Amino acid sequence: MTQLLTQRHNMQIINETIYIETKQSIGIYSITPLVTAIIQSSAIKSGQVLVLSRHTTTAIAINENEERLITDIITFLEKLAPTDANYLHNDLEKRPNIPEYEPRNAHSHLMAMMLHNSENIPIIDGKLALGTWQSILFCELDGPRKRSVSVQIIGI
Known about the structure:
Layout: H1 2-9, E1 12-21, E2 27-30, H2 32-42, E3 46-53, E4 58-63, H3 67-80, H4 106-114, E5 118-124, E6 127-128, E7 135-140, E8 146-155
Antiparallel strand pairs: 1-8, 2-7, 3-5, 3-8, 4-7, 5-6
């Protein structure tokens, strides 16, 4: 039955990549306009979009993109996993095969574990079905760096 539905409705799968060059060690960036543009160019009217961070020290979240709240979120994450705490992961001399540019970033991995690496959002009438104050946020936890986010749209 699923195969028949797919054929009848010409289900499409579209894969795109968003590239982000972050500016801070910890920063939160709205990528809602970029995801919206990909959906608009796809012409998909009904389906869903998966937004996936491709890094172990970044995250994807849905929340309000308000400057003071963003500062609160960063402060909260820094309290959960302080940069200067004593982490085993940061004992680079005790880890095998470590590149010379390896950062001491255990706190970033721990912050990422508290968040999500992806979000799945419905598409209704060709638009993201987000609430009034919701935005798709890319969370940089170990920057500044060049990062990428996978966007996969499935729909008709």
